[in-house]
Amino acid sequence: MCALAVTGACSQNGMQQAGATTVASQRRRLERIGIQLYAVRQQVQRDLPGTLASLAQMGYREVEFAGYAGRTPEQTKQLLAQHGLTSPSTHIGYDQIAANWDRALDDALARGHRYVTIPWLPQQVRTADGMRRVADEFNRAGESARRRGLRFAYHNHDFEFAKAGETTLFDMLIAGTNPDDVFFQMDVFWLVKGGGDPLAYIRQHPTRFTMLHIKDSSGPPDHRQVDVGAGTIDFAGILRLDESQRSVVEHVFIEHDSPADPMAFAKTSIDYLSRLEY
Predict the structure, then answer these.
(1) Is 6 contained in some domain?
(2) The domain containing residue 262 runs over which residues?
(3) Torsion angle, CA of 103/109/112/117, rounded to 10 degrees?
(4) 3-state secondary structure of 101
(5) Is residue 125 part of a domain?
(6) Is beta strand 251-254 parallel, antiparallel or unpaired with respect to 209-214?
(7) Number of domains observed in the structure of the chain
(8) What's the CA gap between 229 and 34, in Å, rounded?
(9) What is the mean pLDDT of the chain?
(10) Does residue 266 sit within a domain?
(11) Which helix (H) or strand (E) holds 241?
């Protein structure tokens, strides 16, 4: 069974007649779909309760925060409960590891998160030497998170796929981090834009990618972000591969960095993804 909540839609191929065996095939659909609130950040800042209510009505069951619009941990938990939502992950700044990591973990626990996810690395560490230092920092941060009952993750963009000798910065980060303490949130769009193959990474590292950012691409050479399902990325293939290997993907979050109409994007994208069979 996939780690993601799924619903099976079984279809009968032929009728059982005269002792013939019934042949059934099963297709899966995602049952629990999330959204990274950065996609609707203007709406969050203007009206967080109303935005959460609208997203829940669309069918979202999970949200990932990138800032809390001034709400305390208690207020955040109350709003989520009020609208039948959970928030398994939050994005926090890389600087928090050095600045006040214990406080960041305390806040994550108080808000009900399971993952603390670093979404960005500053320019000065985007070198081979810098990535080695980052890997060491991530190992320490991940161990500390694990001791508190949390999980630590990193969210990629495209700059991590720059060459570093015979490898890439991203491969260095995977190789240099402890698989028990450091997980990855694969942003499928940015990985593809950077020249990576999502399927190859999942095959090579079947236990590391526990979350996905479902963000679609118009395709090369421009790789414009588009509504989920309006682009070229094979999300069904990615989910199917995870299912056939270890089924470690626990959460998927729809995202777009700058949608023209954020709430329309949210609705169109979940409508597509909730119908997607794999």
Answers:
(1) no
(2) 33-275
(3) 60
(4) helix
(5) yes
(6) parallel
(7) 1
(8) 15
(9) 92
(10) yes
(11) helix 235-244
State pLDDT tens for residues 85-109. 999 999 999 999 999 999 999 999 9
Q: What b/e sequence results for 184-207 when a residue is b if at least 16 CB atoms lie within 10 Å of its CB, and e otherwise?
A: bbbbbbbbbbbebebeebbeebee
CA distance 234 to 219: 11
A 10 A CB-CB count for 276 gives 17
- Distance, in Å, from the CA atom of 83 to the CA atom of 81, rounded to the nearest integer, reads 5
Residue 20 pLDDT more than 90? no
Residue 21, token pair as written in the block:
């065996």
Give the sign of the dihedral formed by CA 174, CA 179, CA 185, CA 187.
positive
Decide: residue 89, CB within 10 A, 0-12 exposed, 13-18 middle, 19+ buried.
buried
- The model's confidence at residue 5, banded by pLDDT at 50, 70 and 90, is low
**What end-to-end distance do the CA atoms of the chain give, in Å?**
13
Does residue 21 form part of some domain? no
Task: Report the 3 state secondary structure along 52-69.
Answer: HHHHHHHCCCEEEECCCC
186-222 confidence digits (pLDDT tens): 999 999 999 999 999 999 999 999 999 999 999 999 9
Which CATH number belongs to the domain containing residue 46 in this structure?
A: 3.20.20.150
